[in-house]
Design a protein that fits this description.
The chain is of the alpha+beta class. It folds into two domains: about 250 residues, Chondroitin AC/alginate lyase (Glycosyltransferase), CATH 1.50.10; about 240 residues, Beta-galactosidase, Chain A, domain 5, CATH 2.70.98. The chain has 14 helices and 25 strands. The strands form seven sheets. It has a six-stranded antiparallel beta sheet with strand order 13-14-15-16-21-18, with no helix packed on it. α6 packs antiparallel against α7, α6 packs parallel to α8 and α10 runs parallel beside α12. The N and C termini lie far apart (about 60 Å).
Length: about 600
């Protein structure tokens, strides 16, 4: 039930929006004439791209209206861009008042994420960067050409590109960068109209802040950009108000969204990266940001650093929606790459209690165990992968998560975030939680860490997940020289049950070094490297049917020496004998390695 405060907030929103629709705000000429760029206070990130050699070819594609968006193939949008059209599914909405646009109805509007990705205008920043790098005038000329087209097709408060305040903020952020980089090179008469629209963007964000609708990364992005507009464009009429409001909300959000161990409450590695970049942008322009804010931001970076492989690959834990705060091109897995030099010693293993994530490290292996993948509230960007395992071998992907693929197709959405898609136990089609639409889970499992031992010759994570009357206990053992053992014990109701231990394989998976009890078979699978696309993959599945309890064991040997020979179960005791020795694990004690 909505509170009186929320009702008053929403009522004011609608009244102000209606007023803006009836009387679009404009700027006095002296204000627009005073703004040309570069903007004081914005750091010199004019060439913030991973690969400068790819920038000029990318700009040439953009000038030709050929776009690389999300995980979609290179697409030619023709001589006149249809800004409100989902060009993949051929669906286009009109210029009605934005509250009347059915942007969540796929049948009428298509996939709104595809529409919005183009309208974030991050490709215009790439054009500005390419102009500065090469001096080619066609890169500069294309910017006002596309913006004039956009302004004509998207009147203030009308159409799908005004439906999300976050998307308005993303576009405003891109415009800030373009203004900073090449604003002084643009025609003054065009700049007047464009800056007036940028002012309208700020008013729309202020009026439609996601305080109640989506107080997560939506509200964060809106707050950061509102502060940026007020700080970098101080001559705008409401600049002081935007700066103060945006700063206050951003400070509140880093306290509410970032937990004490540095992890983000959405429980998604990609959304953590996305939030980190927004908080980072704020810290770059907020000279008065308190020390504790920067310390919390540092914890976020530390958490990311623990997840990222030695080759700079970020594992896809939870949702990955394909977007980016900065340059949105290239391999999404490498969007957070600190360009660090590998230290001579192995980084320490880590336990992040708020995230429920263990990071195990050996000389060649980097293993991530998700004891609890479900985020705060309805866990909208989480996947049902409790007790799942992701692994890198010498920095390359060995065991992987499937990714996201899409939000709009409900069948595909569930297939990619289901329990059976992850490297955990699947019990006869039983989900760990109940999906309630594309961004909601109900009846979450109860997950408990029983024991962990890190930074030892034999590292151990022991955890249990309870759901639907079943108890899944998983013990993950990492030992030198590159051996990973996973022991699963499943208890539950009487009767016959089919229990599967499932492993989605990456490029560094070694089939010759994998063995399991029962023996595994291979099935075709799929993974998504970016929103809107999927590629074939391969999964190993070990299956046991019968009465519970059931015990399943897998061994991954990256040393080239160990394969399972026998697995013996004596009550709560398991003895795994392999070519390189043996592992003895009991229910309540640490494993012994021979």
């Amino acid at each position: 039930m909505r509170s009186a405060r929320e009702i008053a907030f929403r009522l004011r929103q609608e009244l102000v929006n209606a007023w803006f629709l009836a009387v679009p705000p404009v700027l006095e000429p002296h204000v627009t004439e005073s703004i040309s760029g570069p903007l004081v206070g914005l750091p010199d990130l004019s060439l913030f791209v991973h690969d400068l050699t790819s920038l000029e070819p990318l700009a040439e594609e953009i000038v030709a209206h050929r776009f690389r968006l999300l995980g979609l193939p290179l697409t030619d949008l023709g001589p006149r861009i249809a800004w409100r059209k989902d060009f993949i599914h051929g669906k286009e909405t009109g210029t009605e008042y934005f509250r009347q646009i059915p942007y969540l109805d796929f049948q009428r509007a298509g996939d709104h994420k595809i529409v919005w990705e183009l309208n974030r205008h991050q490709h215009l920043v790439a054009l500005a960067q390419a102009f500065l790098l090469t001096g080619r005038p066609e890169f500069l000329d294309e910017i006002p050409s596309q913006l004039e087209s956009w302004l004509e097709a998207n009147p203030f408060q009308r159409g799908i590109n005004w439906c999300s305040a976050l998307e308005v903020a993303f576009r405003a952020l891109s415009w800030i960068w373009v203004l900073h980089l090449v604003g002084a090179h643009l025609d003054a008469s065009f700049r007047k109209r464009w800056i007036t629209s940028l002012y309208q963007h700020g008013l729309h964000i202020e009026t439609n802040l996601s305080v109640y609708f989506s107080p997560n990364t939506h509200l964060l992005g809106e707050a950061v950009v509102l502060h940026g507009l007020g700080t970098l464009l101080p001559s705008l009429p409401r600049a002081h108000r935007w700066r103060e409001l945006g700063s206050r909300l951003t400070l509140e959000q880093i306290q509410q969204q970032v937990r004490d161990d540095g992890s983000h409450f959405e429980q998604s590695s990609y959304y953590h990266l996305y939030a980190h970049d927004l908080f980072l942008f704020h810290s770059l322009i907020a000279q008065d940001a308190p020390v504790w804010y920067r310390e919390r931001l540092g914890k976020m970076a530390d958490f990311l650093g623990a997840l990222v492989s030695d080759e700079g690959i970020l594992p896809m834990l939870g949702d990955e929606d394909g977007g980016r705060v900065f340059h949105p091109y290239g391999d999404r897995r490498r969007f957070w790459n600190p360009q660090r030099v590998r230290e001579s010693k192995v980084p320490p293993s880590r336990w992040f209690p708020n995230a429920g994530i263990a990071v195990l490290r050996s000389e060649s292996l980097h293993v991530i165990v998700q004891t609890n993948p479900f985020g705060a509230g309805t866990a909208g960007h989480s996947h049902a992968g409790a007790l799942s395992v992701v692994a890198f071998h010498k920095g390359a992907e060995a065991l992987i998560d499937p990714g996201t693929c899409t939000y709009s197709d409900p069948v595909v959405r569930e297939r990619f975030r289901a329990t059976a898609a992850h490297n955990t136990i699947a019990i006869q089609g039983t989900e760990q939680a109940s999906p309630q639409g594309p961004f909601r889970w109900a009846e979450l499992p109860v997950v408990e860490l029983l024991h962990h031992r890190l930074n030892a010759d034999c590292e151990v994570i022991d955890a249990v997940c309870r759901y639907r009357g079943f108890t899944h206990r998983r013990r993950v053992i990492l030992r030198e020289p590159g051996i990973l053992v996973v022991v699963d014990r499943v208890n539950g109701p009487p009767g016959e049950w089919t229990v599967e231990q499932r492993w989605l394989c990456g490029e560094a998976f070694r089939a010759e070094g994998f063995s399991s009890d029962p023996a595994a078979f291979v099935e075709p699978a799929e993974r998504s490297l970016a929103y809107g696309s999927s590629i074939p993959a391969e999964r190993r599945v070990a299956r046991r049917s019968g009465a519970l309890p059931a015990v399943l064991v897998a061994m991954f040997d990256f040393s080239g020496h160990a394969t399972i020979q026998t697995v013996s179960c004596y009550g709560d005791s398991i003895l795994i004998e392999h070519e390189g020795g043996a592992v003895h694990a009991t229910e309540n004690g640490p494993p012994e390695v021979f």
